[in-house]
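During the reporting period the student researcher (J.K.) took over the structure-prediction task from the postdoctoral fellow and processed the backlog of single-chain submissions. One of the processed entries is reproduced below for the supervisory committee.
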Amino acid sequence: MLTPGDPAPWFTARSSVNPAFNFDTTGGRYLVFCLFGSASQPACRQTLEAFAQHSERFDLTNLCFFGVSVDPDDESQRRVATNTPGMIYFWDFDLAISQQFGTVDMASKRYQPVTLVLDPALRVIGSYPIGDDVAGHVSAVFKFLDSIPPISSLNGFAPVAVIPYIFEPAFCRMLIDLYERDGGHDSG
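J.K. obtained the following structure tokens:
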């Protein structure tokens, strides 16, 4: 399973809006990437419904929601809402996406639903396993989204000049304290 700092794998897959959606074209905004498996599972269905209640946040410019279904019935029975522009679903019936993201054990076919938050460079900056506490899960994702800088504050910098979320905040604080305590100076 991917963890913060890992780059999200690029893929091309059939989606609710495009028969050959190129995932690498989604960079430049934050993404909520929900590998839920099947909306037939109550916790996963409730998670999707809870995210849909906040659909206005998924404005395509700053934030998008992507859901990954491995269940053909989610599409054929229209169990997932596909009418919101900022909420798009990938149909992963061959488990190719799920394998790349590490959410399925191919030997046992056991699926581990998770919601990832990706930064504009398509790196994982948050990972939230989906469990029974749906309200807590969705709340934690939005609390995290509210804590990160808006897209507009990231514009104007060369991608190599600003690489956020590489180290944990506590480690960054320790490095800053060490620099200040030992009389560090700007090296230019």
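The committee noted the following: The chain is about 30% helix and 20% strand.
J.K. will present the remaining backlog at the next meeting.
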